[in-house]
Structures are given as C-alpha cells and as structure tokens.
Specification:
By secondary structure, the chain is an alpha/beta fold. About 45% of the residues lie in helices and about 15% in strands. The chain has 16 helices and 14 strands. Helix 6 runs parallel beside helix 7.
Length: about 425
C-alpha cells in the first residue's frame, strides 16, 4: 500500500516533493467563517461566545458564568479517573517538568570598563492560553506538554479552553489539567475560543500567547489573531521519518510507522533504508500487523496516500535525505546512530537507537511533543519553556560611557538623517566633549 521510491531514480526529487507537499492554508470558505466568528467575539463578547457554543457544540448554557468549569467539576473528573491513569499522568508530568527545568533562560549582565552595564532580563508571560481539542479527540498528553513548560517558565495564569460537544466532559483531560496546574478552564472551542482568548470577553480573559493543537478552523483562527497575541505554530499533520540499516526487527518499524499514521488520514510515515530486502520485510510486517489495529482504516489511508518506503545507496544518503525532509519525528534506528547525531541538522525530535520508539516521546520521555511539521524544522524548534519567556535588553550608561556612546550615536544618527536622535545623544554628553 505504501509508495516505493529509489533515491537514485531520475524522477525521485519530483516524486518526493509531491509526497511532502501539504498546504496549511485554509480555503476561502474556512477563512471567511473564521473571520466572521472573530469579529462577532470582538463586538459581542460573551453573547457571541454563548451563541457559537450552542451552535457548534450543541450546548445551551444559561449564562456566561457557566462557561467556566467549577472547582467541584474538576475535582469530580479527577475522582473519576482511574488510579492507574492518574499515576501515569503524574509520573509523565514529573518527567516533562524535570526536562523543562533545564530549558529556563536566565537574566544576565556584564559591566564594561567605563562602568556601563549591559544585560538581558528574562520575564515570563503574564497569561497564556491553551487550546485542547474536545469531542472524539482526547489528548491529555498535550495538556501536560503545553501546560507544564508554561508553569515552569513562571507564567502567572494559565487558561485552558476545551469544547464539550453535547455537554460531554472528558475526565482525563481535566485530570491532566489538574496535574499540570492549569489555573482556569472554560468549556469552549473552535475559532470562537481562540478569538475569546485573543481579545478577551467579560468572562474569558485575554492572554498573551495561545498554544495547543486544533482543527483547520482553530489553525485559521490562530493565524488570524497572530500579532494581537503570540502563537506557538501552525501545525500540519503528524510525521515520522525512520532511517534504518535493516538490522532492527521489521515488526518494530512497522508499528512505529503505524504510530503516526493512526493520527489521521493526512499523517505521514516514511521509512528510508539502504537494504531493499528490509523494505520488503517491513512491507510484509505492515500487512501482517495492520488487521489487528483498532484504527486500521485510518492507518491504511495515511500509508497509502502519504506514506513511502525509500531505498538509498547508503546511510550517508539517508542522512542527507533526512535533512532535506526536515521531519517532525526522526528515528535513527541503525548501529552507531549516536556518533552520527551531529550530522542531523533539521528535525523536530530525534530518537536515537533501535530501542527508542517515537511513541515514548509522545507521552513520557520528557522532551516536548509539540514539534515543527511540514519541513519547518529547518527554522523552528519544539515548544519549550522559552516559548513562555521573553527577553528585555538592559542598558545602563555611566557618565563616561554615555559620552563615548553619545558621540558615536550622533555620527551614525546624522548619517541616517535623524538629527533629533543625534541631538538626544549629544545633550547628555556636552559636558564631556
């Protein structure tokens, strides 16, 4: 079912580009709907929020106060979560938090010989908003991955929104929010939730940055409000790229390909190997194992439409191709992978060695699973604590330093025709000229 390519074939580049192409741009009808929702939220606030919640989530609420989950509701969801699952969430949260602690940026200063002080002050965002999908999608792991870095960064208030279609509450999602330390949770979703967090209503506070996954309407809304607020990224379908020398159990590799393909029909799973016979073995494993997968139909569609098995002459070529693809998830399932790690320039997350399944990173290894997709790993990084911190430059001049810098600034300002700039610098230093 998976396409098979030879990297040395004349038409390989064209075929690869076609395979990788994915447009994150919403069509005009989606964007028009999103723009209409955003304008309504800006103009009408809670009134529009209640209207859209009734329309899209089939949930009629008596007042805007009912948009927020109460502490009693959250506690009840935690109580309904099985002890085993709650323990797993707690353990995963501890690992994610420990990893995030290493990412914190710190403030610093240095003093020059004339007494001028230069530096950087790091501050957390005041308030961040986390979008969590609802309905059929239930991703408590995404709650942990998005919320914990914000908390480690020192964000003062973390707001979470999650739709509850037909009033159905996902206990595990609320339990994950409890474990992660989310401050307030609202039962809203879609573009209207994004707009409410961006512009604020009487009930939902405006945030400084919005993070978290969502459908095409959520993605379009995040793009539309960017600039009013920060956003994490516009994420495309999930991806996995595996480089294998043929010495890993083909069943393992098949399951790793499944692990991303089961997300949705647009997900992408690619295997690259210099061993053509190994590609045959993986193909056999796919056919053998697929029938037992609960999401077999989704996996089959994804593998057929966007999956690929690629034969390359050697591992050098495999690594070169990996850098060209710049995948979200990259498994290095070959001997000596750790020695070749410095050669990997573009990947969201790198899983080194045949015992490191990508799924471990999705849930509990520690590093964040919110990763750049669609080749954006060429210039983007995983979500982390640094996404919830900002830097301010510090400049404190001594009298002597101001004299030196003022004279320099005056020359540069006048070269640009900005004479008030030059005068501003000169006014402070005329006693030192």
């Amino acid at each position: 079912m998976m396409k098979r390519f030879d990297a040395l074939a004349p038409d390989f580049s064209a075929n690869l580009q076609k395979l990788l192409d994915w447009s994150s741009v919403a069509d005009a009808s989606v964007q028009n709907t999103v723009d209409e929702i955003i304008h309504a939220i800006r103009d009408e606030g809670d009134t529009a929020l209640l209207r859209y919640t009734a329309k899209f989530d089939r949930l009629d609420l008596s007042s805007a106060d009912a948009l927020a989950f109460t502490r009693e509701e959250i506690d009840a969801s935690v109580a309904r979560t099985s002890p085993e699952l709650l323990a797993a969430l707690t353990q995963a949260a501890a690992r994610i938090r420990a990893y995030a602690e290493h990412q914190k940026m710190t403030s610093w200063q240095f003093t020059e010989a004339d007494g001028t002080v230069l530096g950087q002050q790091v501050s957390p965002l005041d308030r961040a908003g986390l979008y969590v999908p609802g309905g059929k999608a239930a991703y408590p792991s995404s709650v942990l991955m998005n919320a914990i870095p914000a908390k480690v960064a020192g964000v003062r208030e973390l707001i979470m929104v999650v739709p509850t279609p037909d009033g159905i509450i996902n206990d595990t999602v609320l339990a994950a929010a409890h474990v992660a330390g989310v401050d307030r949770i609202f039962r809203i979703g879609g573009a209207q939730a994004v707009a409410a967090m961006a512009y604020g209503t009487a009930t939902v506070p405006a945030v400084d940055k919005i993070v978290g996954p969502g459908n095409i309407y959520v993605a379009a809304a995040k793009r539309a409000v960017f600039g009013k607020v920060g956003i994490d990224m516009i994420a495309g379908p999930s991806e996995i790229l595996i480089l294998c020398d043929g010495k890993t159990d083909p069943d393992w590799i098949a399951m790793d390909l499944f692990s991303q393909a089961e997300h949705d029909e647009q997900a992408q799973s690619i295997l690259i190997s210099p061993d053509a016979q190994f590609l045959d073995k993986v193909t056999a494993s796919i056919e053998k194992l697929l029938a037992d997968q609960p999401r077999a139909a989704i996996i089959r569609t994804a593998l057929t439409n966007r999956g690929a098995l690629i034969h390359v002459p050697d591992m050098d070529a495999a690594i070169e191709l990996a850098n060209r693809i710049a995948p979200e998830h990259l498994e290095l399932s070959f001997e000596g992978a750790e020695q070749r790690l410095p050669e990997i320039r573009h990947a969201g997350a790198i899983f080194v060695g045949k015992y490191t399944a990508e799924a471990l990173g999705d849930y509990c290894a520690g590093p964040n699973h919110v990763l750049p997709t669609s080749g954006t790993a060429r210039f983007s990084s995983p979500l982390g604590v640094y996404d919830f911190q900002k830097r301010s430059s510090i400049i404190q001049c001594s009298a002597q330093g101001s004299a030196v810098l003022g004279a320099l600034a005056e020359v540069l300002a006048e070269s640009e025709g900005l004479y008030a700039h030059g005068a501003s610098a000169r006014y402070r230093v005329k006693d030192h000229r």
